[in-house]
Design a protein that fits this description.
The protein has about 55 residues and is mainly β. The chain is about 0% helix and about 30% strand. A hairpin with a 4-residue loop joins strand 2 and strand 3.
Length: about 55
């Protein structure tokens, strides 16, 4: 399984199209792009904030 993400660079505002597979491998259409992707470790059973952004 994979997903295709249309985004933009937060720094340069350049458009970025990424594909991320189920193993969290990421590839970009523009091979010069090197996005930083991570999965935050959040215990959803004990999360008290309304979303994971507020948990950080």
């Amino acid at each position: 399984m994979s997903i295709r993400v249309n985004s933009e660079c937060a720094f340069s505002k350049r458009p970025m199209i990424m594909e991320i597979d189920s193993d969290m491998n990421c590839s970009c259409e523009d091979r010069s792009s090197e996005p930083v992707i991570f999965v935050p470790e959040v215990d959803f059973k004990t999360l008290k904030q309304p979303n994971i952004i507020d948990a950080f």
